[in-house]
Every structure is written in structure tokens, then in C-alpha cells.
# Entry
Amino acid sequence: MSESATIAAPLERSASGLALPRNLSWPALLIALALVVLPLVAGGYWVFTLGICFANAIAILGVSFLVRYGGEVSIGHGVFAAAGAYVVALAEKYLGLSVLLSLPLAALTGALLGMLFAYPSRNISGIYLAVATMALALALPEVLLYFSGVTGGYEGLYVKRDALPGVPRELQRYYLPLAGLVAVVVLLRHFRGSRQAMALLLIRTSAPAAESFGVRRSWARLACMALSAMIAAVGGALLSFSSTTVSPNSFTLWTSIFLLVGSVVSLYSLSLIGSLVGGLFLTLVPLLLAGAGNWVPILYGGALLAVVLGANALPAAWRKRLGGGQS
Amino acid sequence: MSTLQLQAAAMPLAAAAAPGVRSDALSVESLSLSFGGNHVLQDISLRFEPGHITGLIGPNGAGKTSFFNCLTGLYSPQVGRISLGTQRLEGVPPTGRAALGFSRSFQHVALCPELTVVENVMIGLDRQSRAGWLDAFLPFASGRAERAAHRALALAALRRLGIEAVAEALPAELPPGVLRLAEIARAIAGKPRVLLLDEPAAGLNSVETHDLSNALKKLRASDLVLVVVEHDMDLIMEVCDAIHVLNVGRLLASGTPEQVRANPDVVKVYLGDDDE
Amino acid sequence: MADVLGLVWAGIISGCLYAMGAIGIVLIYKSSMVVNFAHGNLAGLAAFLVFGFTAGTLGNMAWGAAVVLSLAIMVAAMALTYLVISPLVFKSDLTSTISTLGVGLVVQGLTQMVFGPDVVSLDLPLPAWRVDLGGLRISAYDLTVLGVTALVIGALYLLIERTRVGIAFRAVSANPFASRVCGLSLRRVHLFSWIVAGVLGLIASLLIVPTTFLSSTSVSSFMLQAFAAAVVGGFTSLPGAVIGGIFVGVLMNLLSFYVAAEFTNTYMLAIILLVLNLFPKGVLAVRGGARV
# Structure
């Protein structure tokens, strides 16, 4: 195992200066263990809320992945999350599959959709790409409503099937998303040491340099989009499982924007703690403000501004991660 | 005398290649490149031999960088042939040339700031990798073995350039001289057949240039074509076996360092220019 | 045949409004390199303000007074928005663009808080006058839109070509660094373009409201069309924004009628992807250096 200790030079290194053992840092390991034990002490409300939070955290990881490895910002990732969610719901409705079996299907669908969007947008970047993702997010409800015979229209679909027979429902809806989150974080950690990750990071710095070593821009864009869409789809799939419903209302342009907000609040982190921060922010704020609903967008917007302006005042090492190296 | 004849007369015979080792020369015939009405390069013919370090010099605007970009595939010349041995290179894009064994460094250091030095060098081995997407995410034995092997090769390249000690550092922590050597390590990690160095001494002080010069001399290999574009005359004269001089898009002179230094045309072109 | 003509005419009219929205977006982008994603929300707020001042929620003024007051508030809002994000404008284009999303969220929330989520209708004080011209139905509304658009474009042209601040704007759009070296105040030019964009947004949203209901989200869809128009014309070209707007307006009308009406935004997505693939920088893009 010693080789992975030296090879896995994490992106976090420049900020924390710590050498990270295995595939999770010590604080993350402790928090993961705490979360595993939590349902024994916390009430049902928290168990339910955290389940959704974990799923949101995964979707946020999808957005952050695109920023860190692709240098692009997306306000359309709600579409990929929706894809994952609807695959789970439809698989249950038409094939009788539980989420355990439909999860890989959801991930695959996400990856395919990501590539499908990436291909016509492979030469578009920066703000033009952001506008294209906005159009993608706004187009989704139209498509969902047009095919309402299948997708259940405005009312949407239910996801009620048990994944783990014998285990109480609420606990399933907690542990499955938690397992998913930990799995995604660990897989991404391992990915960081791969040649593909290094190629993606280099091509962000200098496309001519990467190309002279055989790394193509179109490959990089397709790979980034497919992977980030796949992660978001997994998040969406687990979201539909833990919240038991799926409808076009859950995946509007605002959903995509909120995912970006969560990603920014987490400082585009790919770690367990960072994604949890983003997910908590995204999940708790509407719940805490359930009475004064109009404050939600104000708080999100305010938080986004606060984080972005605040990070702007931080030293260069952090700011480089925010600005993504290239504009 | 034509430039090719000059070349043939001047250069010592290339060491006979060991059987089985490819040692193809990189040759350029009648190459012309123009943008709009601007003739950047005109009728250039020359040959880069393996086992030698060949320098390409000329005043600013002579077309050196454009010529380089033609060699690497960034530009497509309107007229002329570029061949590696018998392999024609017209229409082959930079990624394709990488597959054929081309490798280059850049004028502005193009290392990824988020990767450590050894990781940056490992990218030089990317095209030889067989690890797929599953290996990227899951710790399978073959993937891990390849990562370890590539890491060893990268460290070897760094050792060859004398900078193994900084393998785990980030580029932001290192001086430009070391970064330049790291970039060259990346370029040689994959055992290329053609190594093109674009102004490797740019931005280096005299101590760092000296280190660079020693490193370059150690890179000579019978199966490697090494071309250096440079402004630094001392470096060129010390390191190169053969030099080609470009001026306003044409080949002005070719030969050994002594011949080029003595060539009156070359002297005239450089008169009044400060050597960097 | 008369149908096509009517569709095209209606498309031109709505295209003028998209054009105005697009000009606002392009103005801001050209000078400060920021894509103002809050444009739709701010313009919507402006329309709501006019509604509020005339319909009793905030007051019971005459229409003209309401517009002037809303205009003043819009100018203040745009200036405030710019000042809030200005530390980022000089640092990173992407981060400042993301921050406009934050502003948009805040404005959306404010609009909903003050005016509620309900849909309201806002009527313009226009005569209900209509004329039939060779199979084409032209209303007072159509002429108003055309007239206002022409006025706005003319005024903008004079502003940019003839006034000092307009020349400064052109300089900053072409080369911000050199402009600063020459002593131009970048901040002043940015404020100018943001404020003018806000005024244009107010005008555009007031004019589009009669064709649809006003709700806290209706202006966003309109804004996507304005964004598409800006993209088609090339984000850096003001005349391109006008052409893009009319192109988008006409195309959308034709597609809605001949293909299917439920896919407005999907058409937008297709148009954006198609145009950007064929013309990577838009149809009429101005070649300029990229500020990193």
C-alpha cells in the first residue's frame, strides 16, 4: 500500500500541506465513521434530511469535477441529476428494479447524456458553454412534460421499492446515499493518481503541450463531461431514492444553479468534508427557512456572493482553485 | 556549394546504428510556408541526423518558431515534404506526431501547476500507457503496476537530468532553471525518436544555462534526433554538432559550429544584434 | 402565405425585444467581460416596479411617473450590482459571471417577497388600434415596439459614436489595458454600460409584458432568448445583437408554429449549439484580444 501513499498526490496538498494516507484523510475517516453511527443517536428527521444531503453532495461533486478537471462551469447539471433520478423511477415502474440494480443504469445514462451534450459543445467553452448549459437546463422540463405519458408529467413518479430487504426503510434511505457518497469520494481520490487525471489537468494548463503528448482536446472534453454527468446522475438516482419522489419541479434551472452554488460554497472541493459542506448548505437552507420560502433564493444568492467575494480576499493558493487556473 | 553538400562535407559520419535500433533522420525538403501574402518560410531543405544535436539559429523574425511549428504539426506548410526516415508527415496532426515519437518542449514552461514534478514528467509516458478507465478509478493490479512502472521511468528521466531531488515538489516552488530541466525530462521520458527544444535557455541565468548545457550533452543518443532552437550563442556553440542558420525565412548557412561562426554571411546578419 | 408573413412579422416584433435584451447583455460583456446572468431577474424586477407603482401595491401613480421612478430605482440597482461585484471584475471573468448568478438569486427572492409568486398582468397605455395591411395585421403595439427599438438603437448609436463616454466605452471594449494606460477610468465606463443595459432591460421587459403574463419567472425565459440572440450575433458585436435578436424572434415563431409549440427552450438549445459550431464566435463577432 505504500506506493499509493506516494503516488496519490492529492489536489488538497497545496492548501493543507498534509500528506494523505490511504484514500481518505484522517478527519474525513472520522466523520465518515461518525455518520455511520449517527442514526443510533439522532432522530428520524435528521436521518431523513441527511440522506437527501448525501445525495445532493454527490450531485455537487459532479459540478465540482467539471470545474476542477475541465475548467468549465455548468448551470445545467440538474439535467444529468434528473436523468439519474428518472432512470431509477422508470426502472422501478416498468422493470420492477430496485435502486441497487438501477443505479449502474442511471450512471451509464448520465455518462451517455454527458457525451451527447459534450459532442456538439466540444469546441465551446467559458461563457458560451455556460449559456449552452443554461439552455440545456431550461429545455429539460419541456421534454419531461412532452413525454408525460412515460414520465408522469407534472406529478412525476414515485420511488418506493426497497433496496435492502429486511432493513428499515428510513435506514436504507440514509445508508445507501452515504455509501454512495463515500464510494464516489474514494473513487475520485484514486482517479487523481491516474494518467487520465494528469492528462486532463495538463490540458487545462496548456493545450499545445498536452497535444504534443497525444492528449486530444475533444477527448478531454468528452471525458470530463461524461464523468461529471455520470457522478451527477448517481446523485440524482440516490436523491430520488431518499426523497421517494421525482418530478420536473425538482429539476428546474434553479436546481442546476443551486448545484453550482453548493459547489462554490464547497470551494469546488472533491473531498468528503467539502462535498458534505456543500450538500448540507443546499439541503438545510430550504428546510430551515420552510416558513419564509422567499428568503431561500436571497440566502443562496447572498451565500454565493459572500463565498466568492470572501475567497477573492484570500491568499493566492486558494484563489487559484476558485478561479480554476484558467478563466 | 549547396547547403546539403556543405552539410555532408562538414559532419562526421553518424555512428553506425546497432541492428534493430531505429535511427531515422528527420528531413525537410523544399518547405515553404506563407500566411496570406506573408512568406514566412521559403524553400527550406535540411536534414537532422540522429545521434547529433542540431541547432537552429537566426535573428528575430527569421522564422525559427514557424519552422518548429511545421515540424511539430501545428502549422501545415503549403509546399514541401517533411519525413521521418521514410515516413511522410504531411497532414499528421500534433497528436499523431506524438504517436510517431515526436516530443517537444515549449518556450514558456508548460508544466501543470497542480501536479508535482514527477507527475508532470509521467505525462510524457501517456501515449505508451495501456491503462483504461477502470484502472483509473479502481485499484486493479495491472493498473497499479503500470503506475509504479511509469513513476520509475519518470524518476529515471529526472535523474538523467540531475533533478531527481525535486520529484515531489510543485512547479510553483521551483526556480525556472529547474522547471526547464523538468520539462525536458518530460519530453524524454517516453524515449522519443525526435526531440525538439524551443529556446530552452530562455529566462535562465548563466549558472542554469551551464547546467542545461551539460544536461543536453548527456542526451545524445544514436536513436534520437535532437533539435535545439536558441538565441543563446554560447549554448549553441558548445552543445551542437551541426547548426543551421535561418534568415528572413530562408536557409542562410549550415555546418559545424566553427564553420558557421566563420561564415561571413552569418556574421553580417548578426552584426549589431546583441547575443542574449 | 399570409400565415408565414404574419408569423415573420410577429417574429420581427418580438425579435426587437430580444435584441434590446441582447444589446444590454453585450454592452456589459464588451466593457467588463462579465456575462450578466442576473439580467432577466433585474429586468423583471423593473417591470414589477412599474406594476407596483401603478396598480397600488407600492403606490397609485400615473404611468409616466411610475416609469420614471422605476427607471431611477433600476439605475441604482444596476450601479449597486456592479459595485458589489466590482472586486471580481478586474480579477476573473468566470468568477464575476458566477457572482451575477448570486445577484440574480437575491433579486428573484426580493421580487417574490415584495410582489408574491402570483402572476399579474401589466397593461401598457397604448391605444387598441389595429390596421390590416395586405393580409398583415399591424397593431399599435407592433408600431410602438418598432418605434421604441429604432429610437433606442439610434440613441445608443449617437451615444457610443459621438459622446465622450461612448468613445471611452469603445476604447475599453477594444483594449482595456491600453485604455487604462491612457488614463480612462474603467470603472466609469463599466458603470455606464451597466446602467444603460439596465435601462434597456426595463424598456424591453415593459414591452414584452403585454404579450405574456408577468410573474417572477416569466422574464427568465425571455432572457434565454436574449442570450441566444447575443450568442448568435457574437457576444462582442452590438449590431450582431440586433440581427441575432430578429433572427431568433422570427425563427422561434416559425418553429413554434410549424413544428411544435412546447419546445421553445429546446429550440434555443439547438440554435445555440448549431450557431456556435458553425460560427465559433458568433455570426458577426468582432475580433478582439481575450482578457485572461
Observations:
- The beta strands of chain C are 130-133, 136-139.
